[in-house]
Amino acid sequence: MQPHPNVRAAQETLDGAGALDGSGAPSVIRLLPDAVHTAAAAAAALDVEVGQIANSLVFEADGVPLLVLTSGAHRVDTTGLAASIGVARLRRATPEFVREHTGQVIGGVAPIGHPRQLHTLVDTTLDKFDEIWAAGGVPRAVFPTTYPELLRITGGTPAEVV
Question: Is the pTM of this model over 0.90?
Fold first, then answer.
């Protein structure tokens, strides 16, 4: 069975970047038996702490897409984040906006594999874990990585988002 195009694009990005997991092995997307639409569901399926899940949240920042990778244990303070990055308006993107800019659906948005690289902020809280998990392009796909690797492969900027 061929992987979904979003999963294939995300894995190709991981491979092209030489992305590693927490053990130093190549990061490989894993397909879970069921879709995991929340950090809590992903953590339960993987038997890890909810804080180890790197949620990929797309926001509309003054009309421009902004990808925020936040610990599953956090909620993004949009008012504080807007002020810290100097935008007048920061709001959760619509499903259509997310698909337009990532090619992926909410609930499975990978931090990589998009048609164009998005400006990305990465929650500094994720740095306390030896290994973190991110979505792999569809709601049942995930991959292991580390905070430094996530910053490197996304070109992201460390940020406090809560």
Answer: yes
16: Cα separation from own chain's centroid: 18
Query: What token pair was written down for 61?
Result: 């920042």
Q: Which residues of the chain have pLDDT under 70?
A: 1
CA 21 → CA 114, 130, 148, distances in Å?
21, 9, 10
pLDDT by residue (tens digit) across 64-98? 999 999 999 988 999 999 999 999 999 999 999 99
Closest CA to 144 of 54, 71, 75: 54
Q: Specify burial of residue 111 (Cβ count, 10 A radius: 0-12, 13-18, 19+).
A: buried
CA 95/CA 106 separation, integer angstroms? 6
